[in-house]
Amino acid sequence: MAEKGFYNSFNEHLKEKFGFKVYKVPVSIDASCPNRMNGKGGCTYCDNVASASPVIDDTLSLTEQINKGILWAERKYKAKGFIVYFQPFTNSFVPLKQLDKSIEIALKTDKVVGIAIGTRPDCVPDEILTLLELYAKQTYLWVEYGLQSAHHRTLKAIKRGHTLAEFIDAVLRIKQKENILISTHVIIGLPGETREEILETARIISALPIDGIKIHLLHILKDTEMANDYYAKRIQTLSMDDYASLVVDFIERLPKNIVIQRLTGEAERERLVAPLWCLEKQKVLARINEEFEKRKTYQGKKFHLGLSMKEIERRTLEKIPT
């Protein structure tokens, strides 16, 4: 668990599993995104970098990217093992042979102990899952599904291009495979969402066989559709205090077994529009811990299955018009 046992942290999970410091090395495998095909502009919050880490240099070969990332993390974090994280865009939206070769290259690299694949729930055909199952029997492997919100209205407004139905289907299909761990990404602070709606997303996730979660702050990036809305004052961002309160609300409603892989989100200053306070990551994390301490609360304290399977099934019928 994290400091003072507030939540089930990813760092502690990795230390317990491997016995030494493990760090994720983000890389690009030149993936695209179906939400940017055929003239579509992608999600309203996403820029042309697709939230890629600034340490990624996609002019390098995959092997060079991995080695550069390992060297950087060894120096900065004293890590001894590494998870290669295929991060930008949709990394299962590539030819099967390309994904296969990329994983093979990563696993041949010294000190690599696992793989993480960032993708979308509408881009995991069965042949991809079969391939990932083969690798999951050899190594520690995560698949990270971007959900962002469980609400149809929100997903449509941010032009996400999929529904809760695809997410539930992707989770249930992958759980038919062996050894693959599932993480999901959510964004707190999306335009128009109330506290109650945010917590309903937590309850829905809690009813599914999810292994990990990344909680992101909505931050506005330059050159995005959402930036235009922000400049026009059609949307606003959260304060640090409001965000910390919502994060704790959210985690209180998650079961204790879900690993908390991320508590906030940020971007480089040159890409960021708002909120500027997210640049102070350590201060944000400290504020979240303060909120846990103030409430004398912890992950799972308010966990219960607030939705019946009948209600979840009803929601899977929601579709974004094509």
Provide the descriptors you would attach to this structure in a database record.
alpha/beta; TIM Barrel; seven-stranded parallel sheet; about 40% helix
In brief, what are we looking at here?
This protein is an alpha/beta fold.
Low-confidence stretches: none
Task: State mean pLDDT (0 to 100 scale).
Answer: 92
* Coarse shape: globular
CATH class: Alpha Beta
- What is the spatial order of strands in the main beta sheet? 1-2-3-4-5-6-8
The counted number of beta strands is 9
Q: Radius of gyration from the CA trace?
A: 19 Å
Description:
- With 322 residues, this protein is α/β, with parallel strands linked by helices.
- The protein has a single domain, classed as TIM Barrel, CATH 3.20.20.
- Helices cover 38% and strands 16% of the residues.
- It has 11 helices and 9 strands.
- It has a 7-stranded parallel beta sheet with strand order 1-2-3-4-5-6-8, with helices on both faces. Strands 7-9 form a two-stranded antiparallel ribbon.
- α4 (126-136) links the parallel β3 and β4 (140-148).
- α7 runs parallel beside α9 and α9 (240-252) packs across α10 (281-295).
- The termini are far apart.
- The model has no long low-confidence stretch (mean pLDDT 92).
Layout of strands and helices, then pairs:
Layout: H1 10-18, E1 22-27, H2 62-77, E2 81-86, H3 96-108, E3 112-119, H4 126-136, E4 140-148, H5 152-157, H6 164-174, E5 181-188, H7 195-206, E6 212-217, E7 220-221, H8 225-231, H9 240-252, E8 259-262, E9 272-274, H10 281-295, H11 309-316
Parallel strand pairs: 1-2, 2-3, 3-4, 4-5, 5-6, 6-8
Antiparallel strand pairs: 7-9
Helix pairs in contact: 7-9, 9-10
